[in-house]
Amino acid sequence: GGKRQDYGTCLELRPNGPDAATPRFERAQALKQLGRWEEATRDYDAAADAFTANRQKREAKIAEAQAAFAKFESGDVPSAATRLETLARQLYSSDVRAALAATYWRAGDVAKAEDTWLDLCQIEDAQCGKYTDKEWLMSYRKWTPSLADAMQDFLKLRS
Which residues have a Cβ under 8 Å from the Cβ of 133 and sit 6 or more positions away? Predict the structure, then answer.
């Protein structure tokens, strides 16, 4: 109900076009809160496409990252890894690389997880020490619960 329905109504009135990007993204956020990962992924992907069409690159990349997080949460770790690898090549983002390290870890590729982590900690302002804080990951970085847990598990093994 609530927000999800409001954004759904908004999208029924204007399902496509430049002004659909933000409502689509916000509905994905509401679906994420409800744990409806597949639906959230579809809306994040649609929002990313709409943001791209609007030449809103930053917003498109945020939606793409959230889609990858939702894929991870739905249990599709290989798809999440592929999406995050693409984003890691496109963006100079410690957060995408940290999520990729956690994804590799969950997939059982310890060496790739470690290499990715060490590379990201070379990035200026990477804040590597903050990734031990699950609350920060979920509230500030907008990670999903299982992805944040995977990061915690990876970092516990490293210490």
Answer: none
pLDDT band at 16 (very low <50, low <70, confident <90, very high): low
* CA nearest neighbour of 132 among 119, 123, 143: 143
- Residues with Cβ < 8 Å from 111, sequence gap 6 or more? none
Q: What is the C-alpha separation between 59 and 108, in angstroms, rounded? A: 31
* CA–CA distance, 138 with 148 (Å, rounded to integer): 7
SS3 state at 75: coil
Predicted model pTM: 0.88
How many other β-carbons are positioned within 10 Å of the β-carbon of residue 66? 24
Look at the block and give the residue holding tokens 């030449």: 55
57-73 and 94-107 helices, crossing angle to 10°: 20
